[in-house]
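Quick question about two entries, pasted in order.
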Amino acid sequence: MIRPPQFWENPLPFYWRPWAWVSMIYGWVIQHRLKNIVPTKVPVPVICVGNLTLGGTGKTPVSLFLATYFLKKGKKVGFLTRGYKGKSRGPLRVNTHHTAKEVGDEPLLLARVAPTWVARDRVLGAREMVRKGIDIIIMDDGHQNPFLYKDVSLVVVDGVQGFGNKEVFPLGPLREPLHFGLSRAEGVVIVRSPSHALKKDLVAYEGIVTEANIIIKKDSLPFRKVMAFCGIGNPDKFFTSLEEAGIEIVERKSFPDHYRYRGSDLKSLKKMALSHHVDLVTTEKDWVRLSKQDQKDILPVPLTLKWKEWAKMEKLITQKIPK
C-alpha cells in the first residue's frame, strides 16, 4: 500500500466533498454484502483479528500472541489468511520452501509459530484446516469478509492514528462505516496509547476495549545503535519500539507496505549501515520477504505485545471458546 494522503488524518477539505458519493457507494456495497450473505459455520471456533482502516494497525502481533496463548493451553491452533500480495489462491498450507511471492509475507511469519493456510476462499480454507485436525482457527484479517462465520471478532486500531477523519475510502481510511464495523466486533484492541479523539470515538462502543503496546522481545537485540528500515503499514510503530527499548537509530528508511525490495535497495542499505559502523535491522515481516542471500547482514527484530489489561481480553475469549 502507498502512503495514505494527509487529509485522511484530518477533517475532509471542502473541495473533496463533491466526491462524497464515491465513499457512500463503497460503504453501501460493503454493508450490503455483510448484511445479506449468510456466513458458513465450521465445526471449530474461528477468531477473526481484523481492522476497520486501510494500512497497518498491529493485527499480526495480536494474531501471533493469541496463537501462542492457545498453544500453551495445548490447543491445535492454526492461522487462516488471504495471502495478500501472494500468487497462490489456495487452500495451501504454508511450508518453509514457499516464498513471499507465492504466499505473501505475513503467512511466512505466521507459519513460524503455528500451521498456516493461505486461501482466497476462506470457507474452503477453514474446512481444509478442520480436516487436518486444527481445533481453533485464527483468521488474520477478514473482518469485512462475509462468507465465514466468526465466533469472536476483534478489531485492532492504532492508538495514535485512530480512525483518521472517519470517512470511508477513498475519502478516508475506513474500510466500512465506523458504527457498522464496530457493531460486529466483540472486542477492540488499541495498539499504542489511545488519543483523546479515539477515546471519544469509542465512548458508545459496548464491547471489550483493551490496550497493548508492541515491544521488542527481551534481550533480542544486544546492541545499542542500529540503522533500521521497514516496509510495513505503519513504520513509526517499529521505529518507536526500537527507541523505547533504548536503542539509538542512527538512520532510518521506510518503504511502502509489503514492498518487494530490489537488489539495489538492499545494497544501498547495507552500504549505509557499514558507513555508520552499525548493524542493519528490520522487522521480521520484512526479513521473511528477502531471499536467503539478501538476509545476510540484516537482523530481524522480534516483536511481541505487552497488554495493559489482558485479563479482560482473556475473559472474552474463554467465554466464547469452549475449553
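Here is the second entry:
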Amino acid sequence: MKYYIIAGEASGDLHGSNLIRELKKRDPAADIRCWGGDLMKAAGANLVKHYADLAFMGFVEVVANLRTILRNLDFCKQDIRRFQPDLLIFIDYPGFNLRVASWAKREGFKTVYYISPQVWAWKENRVKTIKESIDKMLVILPFELDFYKKWNYPVTYVGHPLAEVISRFKEQHASIPRNARLIALLPGSRKQEILKKLPVMLETSRFFPTYNFVVAKAPGVSDEFYAPLLAAYPNVSTTTNATYEVLMQAEAALVTSGTATLETALFGVPEVVCYKGNKISYLIA
C-alpha cells in the first residue's frame, strides 16, 4: 500500500517514526511518503518536508508567515495528487492537517487521524470538521472515548505511545545513574519558541553556579543557532539526540509546555513547565 503521513512537530516525528516501523513490519512493501523529520526518514519514509520549515505558533507569527503556510498547503495537495496514496494519515498538527483532510475527503482519499487534536480543551466545534473529513480517528487518551461519544462519533483508543517508548528506554538504560547536580533544559523544538524561552531558562543557571545545566537541542536545529545564546553561560552544556539520556540523569528540569512535559513526568523528574509567547499573541489569547 501507499501511505502519505503528515506530522508537523518534533513530537509528531517521534510518533510517526514508531508508526512507520509498525507499518513496515505489517506491510514490508509499504511505500511511505511523509512530512515530518529525521526520525520518520530514518524509519523508512521518503521525507518531503521537514517540520522545522512548518512550525509557526501564535497569532502574530501565523499572520507574518501566512504566505509560506498557504504555499505549503498548496504544495501538499499537489504532492498528494501526484502520489495517489491508498491512505492519508494525519498526526496531531490540526491547524494544517484539518485543512488538508477536508480537501482530501472531497478528493476521495481515505483518511485516518492518529493522535486527536485537543478539541476537548479548545475549539470544540472542530469536531464537526473531523466527523466530515476523517474516516477513522485513533485516540491516545482514555477520556477521549467519552468525549467523542457525546458527538456520536466512534473512535478507537490505542493508548499513549510515549508510555511504551519511555518504559522500554528505561529498561534498556537502567544503568544510567541520577546526577544530583544536573538540571535539564528543554526549550522546545521550534526556533521561534527556543528564542523566546531558552534565554529565560539560561538565566536560571546564574543562580545555581555549582549545578550543571544541559540543553537538549532540537533535531533539525543547527549548532550555529544555539551558539550565541549559550556563549555567556559557563555552567551550561548541550546535547543532541540524547534528551532521554539527560532525563535519566537529571535531578530537575525546566521544560517548555508540550509533549516534553509528559516525557519528563514519565521519567519521574521534577519539572517547572515554562512558556513565553509574543506579547500581542498573549494579549489576543
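Reply: The chain has 13 helices and twelve strands. Residues 28 and 212 are 45 Å apart (CA to CA). Hope that helps.
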